[in-house]
Design brief:
Length: about 350
Amino acid sequence: MHRVESWLKRMWGPRAPAPGQAAPAGPDEAIADAAVAQAQPPETPGAADPPDADLDRRFTAFLLGAGQLHAGRAEPAERRALQHMGQLVQEGRGSTLVPRLPVELPRLISLVRRDDVSPRELTERLARDPTLVGEVVRLANSPRYRTGRDIADLQGAVIALGQRGLVQLVVSAAMRPIYDARQGRFSRVAGTRLWNVAERCSHACSFLCSGAANRFHGYLAGMVANIGLIGALRVLDADYADPQPPSSGDFHDALGRTAAALSEQVARQWEFPAAVCQAVLRRTDRPDGADVEALACTLRAADRASKRHLLAPGLGTEALAGLDELQRRGYLELQRAFSG
């Protein structure tokens, strides 16, 4: 938590002008300036930029329908939106922009994670919700689970999916309505794109983790890694009146860092495991060896693989050769799992 607070102070605190530089026009301008400047991760001596370093920019441009971005300073309307987002982060109110987690989700997760739970008990519990029944059967028949046969009913799906699949299912079924909420101009443009990347990121992160507990943490981390963008979209829906979507590179860099902080706040508000919350925040750090925890590194790779797969689902051998091992494995798994 101390690391989060110190980062927020650096990101949103006032900045003294450099020698010979004019002071900002006022406190609001200072906050917006700090938002853009501190959105860039610190340089690490000897650390190279990851391949395709503008991937996050291209994804947020795709999300907002911005088209081609331009280099340079954020526009006034963009800076006002960043200021609002920054205040929410600094005041710890980011989770207020995201719908609450359904109360039944912790109960369902607790049930499916029990070692002694029987398929009959799971079937009886899930049968109470027709939406969950349909989602269970759909998921059991998806390429991700490779059951080798058609699943026609709930009990067959429960047996085919197993506990790991059911944990993922109940999280997915409960989270999808949160991602699908479309309340304004930018939320409508985003449509299902944000959910599509969350679904891919959670699957890839779980796949890349080792051990059952790690896979569960990986799935949760992937599901909430970009949930702060829901809050950012709602701020833009309310505050951004310019007819053209935000298109400066500075804005999109700041948006990515701010959304990561919002995502971490939401994960903490929902009482997700501490390791998950830390990984969500730290995934935006440039990896420099052991300094970045294993789950954060895995989440970063899964996040980038999922965005890449959504933007370019058919990369060939040559393009894949330019990715690091984790990203390449994650991308290939997404090609397999989301091919149908």
